[in-house]
Amino acid sequence: MSDTRPSEADRPGQERRPDMGALAIAAGLAIISVVIAWNTATMGGVASYSRVGPTAFPYAIAAVLFVLAIWTAVEAWRGDFPEREADNIPPILWIVGGLAAQMLLLKVAGFSIATGLLFALTARGFGRGPLWKTVPIGIVISLAIWFIFSRGLQLSLPAGPLENLL
């Protein structure tokens, strides 16, 4: 069965307005592309013995981002983007809180505790498990990751009290 009801854009007297969120994304893409191109142009000490050098890929990335910015702006102006769902703020706050906690605690508490809290708060944001259960699970997983990176790969990750025990 097909739905014969007219879509919102097809109704007389109702025309879709430009999508302001998508226009903001287009502006952000354009700004990023200009910054990349400007930074590449002002880069000093670049060897000029061949056409393809260390500046070729940044210019290519800037060009692609600029084309995407124009394309996004055109689609936003036409109103061709699908309607977005309403944001569910509490899960976003749990995840952003986890990121903030990790950034604030990384040097003080070490990698395992800070990343374990990030794991637990993100799991809470996705509606999984109580914090009393996910915090220890996150810390154990993070400690295993720290051990692999620090001892196995000889990479430097912030050590805290748990890491100093090992």
TrEMBL record:
InterPro entries hit by this protein: DUF1468
Domain DUF1468: start-end pairs: 25-158
Xref: Pfam families: TctB
Keyword tags: Membrane, Transmembrane, Transmembrane helix
Signal sequence extent: none
Transmembrane intervals: 20-40, 52-72, 92-119, 131-149
Domain of life: Bacteria
Designated name of the protein: Putative tricarboxylic transport membrane protein
Biological source species: Pseudaminobacter salicylatoxidans
Source species taxonomy: Bacteria, Pseudomonadati, Pseudomonadota, Alphaproteobacteria, Hyphomicrobiales
